[in-house]
């Protein structure tokens, strides 16, 4: 069983529609219910700031501080986890000109928000992700990259280095007159980085597919078949050096075509994630709204399981508006799967009754106009 990591105390100041809120939690799951606009998602967003990046809304920090105040905000938590109790905090100082937030761990400034990953992992599922299967390939690529990144922080560097090399190649092609050795060197660099990206994504997808395979487990969440397409397809078994050679050849052969197109048409930036509902044998994008939500939730739960397996600690889950799309059987199954992960989940909804099957497993809180109370 992975180590349980829980947020036991949470304090927000001048965050979104909260002046000040202080919560004592007891390690159980937390259900936040309340009317539209009450501040439920804001609370999840605050917790999501305990991970690197801009949180579950990809917010600009200057928008996060309570409007009308002086744009500063702070969020503190006491976390029980791998190394006993740790105090973590993040925020912007009032009147701060800087675009980056401060992160404190045990009253000391962290060098980077990545240090938070030594203490807790936070994963989320929000309604904004609902169009994942019907939207563009770039959304699915970002989804996969975020998953890879959560387990392999070097992936971000790889992707940005690839992007830079590709821009250099595009520029040389656009200028028309280029030195063959120079463009060859850039293409070689792109091949090394591009193939490393492909392999990292493929490894993540195969681990995820294994965990998203719920056949025979009695789960109400459908099994999904996952595959990556769009870049060096059908060459999965080849060693990295062979894949690099293949890609270099494609780039060399594609120079005139790419010059005409004004961009590089082959590469990891063309990858797409295909998700197939196994029982129905149809693409996820053709499934019903509830089925798509179930498939997506299944993927996020598989990611949570993978994170627990690889780090030894169960991630904290933020599940916004999680219950509304699900029938009673799926809700009960969801709560059981969350329990089996062995971590703490924060869930929101407008209707308390949707969470009844959780019973005493969750602390029930009511959110109203930026204040939070234990539900009576
Ligand atoms: N920087 C800010 N300062 C003050 N209030 C803000 C700020 N940002 C957002 N809000 C307010 O927070 C409220 C939205 O909160 P939130 O998104 O958490 O609602 P919710 O309870 O999740 O609602 P729903 O059920 O509709 O999703 C809105 O009324 C919005 O105007």
UniProtKB/TrEMBL annotation:
Residues reported in the UniProt entry to bind ATP: 34-41
InterPro entries, alphabetized: AAA+_ATPase (IPR003593), DNA-binding_RecF (IPR001238), DNA-binding_RecF_CS (IPR018078), P-loop_NTPase (IPR027417), RecF/RecN/SMC_N (IPR003395), RecF_2 (IPR042174)
Keywords in alphabetical order: ATP-binding, Cytoplasm, DNA damage, DNA repair, DNA replication, DNA-binding, Nucleotide-binding, SOS response
Subcellular location as annotated: Cytoplasm
GO MF terms, alphabetically ordered: ATP binding; single-stranded DNA binding
Gene Ontology cellular-component terms listed: cytoplasm
Domain of life: Bacteria
Membrane spanning stretches: none
Location of the AAA+ ATPase domain: 26-369
CDD domains: ABC_RecF
Gene3D superfamilies, alphabetized: P-loop containing nucleotide triphosphate hydrolases, RecF/RecN/SMC, N-terminal domain
GO BP terms: DNA replication; DNA synthesis involved in DNA repair; double-strand break repair; SOS response
Record SUPFAM superfamilies: P-loop containing nucleoside triphosphate hydrolases
Function, in words: The RecF protein is involved in DNA metabolism; it is required for DNA replication and normal SOS inducibility. RecF binds preferentially to single-stranded, linear DNA. It also seems to bind ATP.
HAMAP family recorded: RecF
Similarity remark: Belongs to the RecF family.
Record's protein name: DNA replication and repair protein RecF
């Amino acid at each position: 069983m992975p180590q349980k990591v829980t947020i036991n105390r949470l304090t927000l100041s001048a965050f979104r529609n909260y002046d000040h809120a202080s919560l004592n939690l007891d390690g159980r799951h937390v259900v936040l219910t309340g009317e539209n606009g009450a501040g439920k998602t804001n609370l999840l967003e605050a917790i999501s700031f305990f991970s690197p990046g801009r949180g579950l809304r990809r917010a600009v920090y200057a928008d996060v501080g309570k409007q009308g105040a002086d744009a500063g905000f702070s969020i503190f938590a006491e976390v029980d986890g791998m190394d006993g109790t740790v105090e973590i905090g993040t925020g912007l100082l009032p009147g701060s000109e800087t675009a980056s937030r401060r992160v404190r761990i045990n009253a000391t400034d962290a060098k980077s928000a990545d240090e938070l990953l030594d203490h807790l992992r936070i994963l989320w599922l929000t309604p904004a992700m609902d169009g994942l299967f019907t939207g563009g390939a770039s959304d699915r690529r970002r989804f996969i990259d975020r998953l890879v990144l959560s387990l392999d922080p070097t992936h971000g560097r790889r992707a940005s280095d690839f992007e830079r090399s590709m821009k250099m190649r595009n520029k040389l092609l656009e200028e028309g007159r280029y030195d063959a050795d120079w463009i060859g060197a850039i293409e070689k660099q792109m091949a090394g980085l591009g193939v490393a990206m492909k392999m990292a994504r493929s490894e993540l997808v195969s681990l995820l597919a294994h965990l998203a395979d719920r056949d025979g487990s009695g789960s109400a969440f459908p099994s999904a078949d996952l595959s990556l397409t769009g870049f060096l397809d059908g060459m999965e078994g080849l060693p990295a050096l062979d894949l690099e050679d293949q890609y270099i050849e494609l780039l060399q052969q594609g120079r005139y075509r790419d010059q005409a197109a004004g961009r590089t048409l082959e590469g990891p930036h063309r990858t797409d994630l295909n998700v197939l509902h196994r029982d129905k044998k149809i693409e996820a994008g053709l499934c019903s709204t509830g089925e798509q939500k179930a498939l997506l939730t299944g993927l996020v739960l598989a990611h949570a399981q993978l994170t627990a397996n690889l780090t030894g600690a169960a991630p904290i889950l933020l599940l916004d508006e999680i219950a509304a799309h699900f029938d009673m059987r799926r809700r009960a199954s969801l709560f059981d799967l969350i329990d089996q992960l062995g971590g703490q989940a924060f869930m929101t909804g407008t209707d308390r009754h949707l969470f009844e099957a959780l019973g005493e497993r969750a602390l029930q809180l009511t959110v109203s106009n930026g204040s939070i109370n234990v539900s009576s």
